From TrEMBL, chain A:
Any one GO molecular-function label of the UniProt entry: tryptophan synthase activity
The protein, known as: Tryptophan synthase beta chain
Family: Belongs to the TrpB family.
Species for this entry: Candidatus Desulfacyla euxinica
UniProt KW keywords: Amino-acid biosynthesis, Aromatic amino acid biosynthesis, Lyase, Pyridoxal phosphate, Tryptophan biosynthesis
């Protein structure tokens, strides 16, 4: 293997020997498509005909007036097919898997977004598909399980560990060490062993490329700040990557859950609770105890509820290139309500973290400044989760009534 | 005495050695001690002691659950090392640590290795640490004269086997098949030619693991490998029939072992 995918001290390839050949082949295939202009062309074509690329950059006029500071623009990744930026990565890896001659794909999923995106891609490309999902998440996210199964995927509940996202990743790796000959593992975020962090960022970089161009075209200048929520980090790296060499402040927003001082959060960089470790095949900041055992994390947004963070983001934090903040569950719900009412936009709970931080800072910026918020996904399709987060009484009554109907 | 020499001496008396694997702290730390005692009494030649980790990526469901339970019951790294030291002092067979890299990384790699040496352990198996990432570890192991056990798999090329073996000491751990620990292995001619390839690539003794469940599996390996590794099966046995069932199981795997006088002596004070 030529590169071991290090970003400063973070990254690497910490895998069992049985997977060495598989990772070598993947890294090689990825290098090949990166230098093949035809591949990016094919990728852009499919993203513009099967998904909705380029996604618009919407001016949030009412929010801008409300806060009276910077001009607020929203990058609309929610308008992708399947409703989130996840499609960018999944379609790219699907094309790569086709080139590698694989006939089956596997994926992990937390809330189910990445699982649904992968199942969709598999249906489109004719792959067999298995999605690993923590048992807790299967119970919480029935609508996504329903769609994955309708799309022809097999959904396997993971009953080991804490039964959430990280356990689903472990289980997908266990499948892969058995079936690597015909199977590609579509990892959903910019984490894991090399080349995954680089590869996922590469496919997501389409967000930033468009946003930078749109910003110049719409306002004739670059944004002062760009905000993105950070779970594993793929949507953040996707939008940030185009601005790394510009005088643009990049702000990653983690999940502060019930508060950074409560211990019930998923903030690896903005809190003081993260420390460097090696798990799931890569080195980065993890929420772990002194012995190196991973801790439980908490966030209202399942997509941010993860113990690790992209090694590329850890490196940019170390260099001071990206600032990390955290938004609490309740700040996020407030930001979401305001965005819905003021703009008629429904961000996913994950994306609403970026909104919450941007709203804290927008009033202090001048009217000459523009800021970009990455709306990584749409929230309306997560109606069960969001209605529960808002404790909506009408929704509760509806579910009870439906329950009675089915029970009768 | 260095691990390889200990194994070579034992191999003069029997044609295949038995290595067993347990998860420290499962079902409890005290039970772990009793399991080791039973295994040593039954003629096991060496043992790997797994320090539990929350993300055991190379392990199958039985060992994963054992890791989890052990952690829930408070098997800290310190407690595991204490137990490892206790058995290493009490019983006269080589003991190795098996764990994932993060355990060493968070402890401090050099400190961990020097503590292993101080506590009388002979080597370590770290399945998620390829030599490319393990410079500090390999150097520390050499300094303390401990055996880093390198792993071959059926997907490892001949060239890579040579590369891996250049870092290995003690023995080479040959994973019998794709997949995780504990699933069924087909003991077939495919395995034969794989093991012949391993033998060609390394002059160290060969251990074969993943899926050994019965006497016929051990017999199959005679003449092709030097050490048969029993991992998941004894954990399952303890769960289903209790610690006392382990002795009979181990003795049944290898009649040569049962008749052999070696392996049972406890160290005198």
């Amino acid at each position: 293997m030529l590169s071991r995918g290090y970003y400063g001290e973070f990254g690497g390839v910490f895998i069992p020997e049985i997977l060495t050949t598989t990772f070598d082949e993947l890294a090689e295939a990825f290098e090949k498509v990166k230098s093949d202009p035809g591949f990016w062309q094919e990728y852009s074509h499919i993203m513009s005909t099967y998904s909705c690329r380029p996604t618009p950059l919407s001016f949030a006029e009412n929010l801008t007036r409300h806060f009276g500071g910077a001009h607020i623009y929203i990058k609309r990744e929610d308008l992708n097919h399947t409703g989130a930026h996840k499609a960018n990565n999944v379609m790219g890896q699907g094309l790569l898997a086709k080139r590698m001659g694989k006939s089956r794909v596997i994926a992990e999923t937390g809330a189910g977004q990445h699982g649904v995106a992968t199942a969709t891609m598999a249906a489109r490309f004719g792959f067999k598909c298995t999605v690993y999902m923590g048992e807790m998440d299967v119970e919480r996210q029935r609508p996504n399980v329903f769609w994955m199964e309708r799309l022809g995927a097999e959904v396997i509940p993971v009953i080991d560990g804490t039964r959430i996202l990280k356990d689903a990743i472990n289980e997908a790796f266990r499948d892969w060490v058995t079936n690597m000959d015909d199977t590609h593992y579509v990892l959903g975020t910019a984490c894991g062993p090399h080349p995954f962090p680089e590869m996922v960022s590469y496919f997501q970089s389409i967000i930033g490329k468009e946003a930078r161009e749109q910003s110049l075209k719409n306002e004739g200048k670059l944004p002062a700040r760009v905000y993105a929520c950070v779970g594993g980090g793929s949507n953040a790296l996707g939008i940030f990557s185009a601005f790394l060499d510009d005088r643009v402040e990049l702000v990653g927003v983690e999940a502060a859950g019930e508060g950074l001082d409560t211990g019930r959060h998923a903030s690896r960089l903005a809190s003081n609770d993260g420390s460097v470790g090696v798990a799931q095949g890569y080195k980065t900041y993890f929420l772990q105890d002194r012995d190196g055992q991973m801790k439980e994390t908490h966030s209202v947004a399942a997509g941010l509820d993860y113990v690790g963070i992209s090694p590329i983001l850890a490196w940019h934090r170390e260099k001071g290139r990206i600032r990390f903040e955290a938004a609490t569950d309740s700040e996020v719900l407030d930001a979401m309500s305001l965005t819905i009412k003021k703009e008629g936009l429904i961000p996913a709970l994950e994306s609403a973290h970026a909104f919450a931080q941007a709203f804290k800072e927008a009033p202090d910026l001048s009217a000459d400044d523009i800021i970009l918020i990455n709306q990584s996904g749409r929230g309306d399709k997560d109606i069960f989760t969001i209605a529960e987060a808002f404790e909506d009484p009408g929704w509760k009554a509806f579910i009870q009534k439906k329950g009675n109907e089915y029970g009768a | 005495m260095a691990l390889e020499m200990v194994l070579r001496n034992k191999l003069k008396e029997k044609d295949i050695l038995l290595m067993t694997h347990i998860v420290l702290g499962y079902p409890s730390l005290e039970d772990s001690f009793r399991i080791v005692e039973t295994m040593v009494d039954s003629g096991v030649d060496l043992m790997e002691l797994q320090i539990p980790f929350s993300e055991p990526i190379a392990d199958g469901p039985v060992i994963v659950r054992a890791n989890q339970r052990a952690l829930e019951r408070g098997a800290t790294v310190e407690a595991c090392l204490d137990l490892a030291e206790r058995v290493a002092r009490e019983f006269d067979i080589p003991f190795l640590i098996m764990t994932y890299y993060n355990i060493l990384f968070c402890y401090g790699v050099r400190d961990f290795v020097s503590d292993m040496a101080k506590r009388g352990l002979q080597g370590a198996i770290i399945p998620d640490l390829p030599p490319e990432e393990g410079h500090d570890y390999l150097e520390a192991m050499q300094t303390h004269d401990l055996a880093p056990i390198l792993i071959f798999s059926p997907t490892t090329s001949g060239m890579r086997m040579k590369y891996l073996e250049s870092f290995g000491r003690g023995f080479i751990y040959c994973v019998a098949r794709k997949g995780v620990t504990g699933a069924d292995t087909r003991f077939s001619t495919g395995l034969d030619s794989y093991l012949a390839g391993c033998r060609k690539a390394s002059s160290l003794p060969l251990a074969v693991g993943f899926g050994i469940k019965e006497r016929a599996n051990v017999d199959f390996l005679r003449g092709k490998a030097d050490i048969a590794v029993i991992g998941t099966e004894t954990i399952r046995l303890v769960e289903e029939q209790g610690i006392s069932s382990v002795g009979g199981f181990i003795r049944g795997l290898s009649p040569v072992t049962a008749n052999s006088p070696g392996g049972v002596e406890a160290k005198g004070k």
